[in-house]
């Protein structure tokens, strides 16, 4: 009963603060998805996860975001490409030209067909996965503020910082440093060093590894800049793959 009361209070608080609520039908949809995407082996190097944290994860094409949403033992929202939260034309163009052709190397015909259908269903999935628009211009401050709002309401933020412009790789090549700015902003607002967890999911091995929490100021105190910090975390995510999955 206590858990039900707490959940009700949190739901009302989230509504008041504009937190996106999952549609009731999502529970059924998630149940169906779990029939096709079985629960992976989860290796946690951290024990129980906190209510609010930043997770840095590999994208693994479509598999990563879906599997993290279904099985990561934490309530999360995720950063996603902002065109996917636009109108149908914006979604279609992004899916066709960027996601399918540029990143997944599909043929133009396949990309056209897949984008045509997926652009219809994307809003439902993005809403229920609590996707926040990630911008690469001055609007990035909107991404930061919405992320902090999520964290303030006990919803963790999962970010896919890998450079996937040339495609998705099993071993990641580079991280963008937007997550560093989020951790800095959160610290300036709350004087709290929020934990940052590296995470890796491998679809063929059906294994998800959750690393140990790291803290931004441990790296800042070493004199590292944002790009160097991003590189360090990229190495940590890769190490989860190399040491706990590949071996």
Provide a short characterization of the protein structure.
The chain is of the alpha/beta class. The chain has 9 helices and 7 strands. 51% of the residues lie in helices and 13% in strands.
What does the secondary structure layout of this molecule look like, with pairings?
Layout: H1 2-16, H2 25-36, E1 41-44, E2 54-57, H3 63-71, E3 76-81, H4 88-103, H5 108-128, E4 131-134, H6 140-152, E5 156-159, H7 178-190, E6 196-202, E7 207-210, H8 216-220, H9 226-246
Parallel strand pairs: 1-7, 2-5, 2-6, 3-4, 3-5
Antiparallel strand pairs: 6-7
Helix pairs in contact: 4-5
List keywords for this structure.
single chain, 247 residues, disordered N terminus, 7-stranded mixed beta sheet, alpha/beta
Question: How does this model look, in words?
Answer:
By secondary structure, the chain is α/β, with parallel strands linked by helices. Helix content is about 50%, strand content about 15%. It is built from 9 helices and 7 strands, in the order H-H-E-E-H-E-H-H-E-H-E-H-E-E-H-H. The protein has helices spanning about 1-15, 25-35, 65-70, 90-105, 110-130, 140-150, 180-190, 215-220, 225-245; strands at about 40-45, 55, 75-80, 130-135, 155-160, 195-200, 205-210. The chain has a 7-stranded mixed sheet with strand order 1-7-6-2-5-3-4, with helices on both faces.
């Amino acid at each position: 009963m206590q858990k039900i009361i707490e959940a009700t209070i949190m739901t009302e608080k989230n509504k008041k603060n504009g937190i996106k609520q999952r549609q009731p039908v999502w529970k059924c949809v998630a149940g169906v998805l779990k029939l096709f995407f079985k629960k992976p082996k989860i290796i946690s190097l951290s024990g129980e996860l906190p209510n609010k944290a930043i997770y840095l994860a590999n994208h693994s094409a479509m598999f990563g975001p879906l599997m993290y949403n279904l099985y990561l033992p934490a309530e999360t929202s995720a950063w996603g490409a902002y065109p996917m939260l636009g109108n149908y034309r914006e979604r279609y163009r992004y899916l066709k030209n960027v996601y399918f052709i540029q990143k997944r190397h599909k043929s133009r015909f396949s990309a056209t067909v897949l984008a045509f259908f997926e652009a219809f269903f994307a809003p439902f999935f993005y809403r229920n996965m609590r996707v926040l628009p990630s911008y690469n211009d001055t609007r990035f401050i909107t991404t930061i503020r919405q992320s902090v709002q999520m964290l303030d309401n006990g919803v963790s933020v999962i970010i896919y910082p890998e450079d996937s412009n040339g495609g998705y790789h099993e071993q990641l090549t580079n991280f963008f440093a937007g997550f560093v700015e989020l951790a800095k902003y959160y610290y300036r607002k709350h004087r709290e060093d929020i934990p940052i967890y590296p995470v890796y999911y491998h679809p063929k091995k059906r294994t998800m590894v959750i690393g140990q929490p790291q803290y931004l100021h441990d790296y800042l105190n070493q004199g590292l800049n944002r790009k160097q910090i991003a590189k360090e975390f990229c190495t940590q995510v890769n190490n989860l793959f190399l040491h706990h999955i590949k071996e």
